[in-house]
């Protein structure tokens, strides 16, 4: 009986030490937009919107295609916020776009800086877009 109490105490001490050294449990982030096979977390989407909106507010653009630029929504997406809209690249490197190849993925925001949605050329015909999931 005394042996089982010692064993229980040792087990409890070991588990407590393991939990203390492991630190806090990290919460896994979920995809908020999946464009093709790329999963974008909220942080990446937010950073792209902020970068695009700051450029829009300053009247500046980057890249050969002058991003951000007007998104006319010819595809008829049903965004949660009203336009007019701007589009800005969202890169699969998860870094904010500063020029060069924009890749296929975009964030769309309105001129008030509100996130409207994520769209991609991946899986769309021609120069059209489809909504990211």
Automatic annotation (TrEMBL):
Q: Signal peptide position in this chain?
A: 1-22
Enzymatic class: lyase
Query: Matching SUPFAM superfamilies, A to Z?
Result: Microbial ribonucleases (SSF53933)
Q: What are the record keywords, sorted?
A: Disulfide bond, Endonuclease, Hydrolase, Lyase, Nuclease, Signal
> What domain of life is recorded for the organism?
Eukaryota
In short, the EC number is 4.6.1.24
Q: Which reaction does it catalyse?
A: [RNA] containing guanosine + H2O = an [RNA fragment]-3'-guanosine-3'-phosphate + a 5'-hydroxy-ribonucleotide-3'-[RNA fragment]
According to the UniProt entry, the coiled-coil residues are: none
Please give the family membership noted in the entry: Belongs to the ribonuclease N1/T1 family.
**UniProt protein name:** ribonuclease T1
């Amino acid at each position: 009986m005394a042996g089982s109490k010692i064993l229980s105490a040792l087990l409890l001490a070991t588990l407590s030490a393991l939990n203390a050294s492991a630190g806090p449990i990290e919460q896994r982030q979920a995809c908020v937009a999946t464009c093709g096979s790329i999963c974008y977390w909220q942080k990446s989407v937010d950073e792209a919107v902020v970068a695009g909106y700051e450029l829009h507010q300053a009247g500046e653009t980057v890249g050969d295609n002058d991003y951000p630029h007007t998104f006319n929504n010819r595809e008829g997406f049903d965004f949660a916020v009203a336009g007019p809209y701007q589009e800005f690249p969202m890169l699969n490197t998860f870094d904010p776009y500063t020029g060069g190849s924009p890749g296929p993925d975009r964030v769309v925001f309105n001129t008030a800086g509100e996130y409207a949605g994520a769209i991609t050329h991946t899986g769309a015909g021609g120069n059209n877009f489809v909504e990211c999931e």
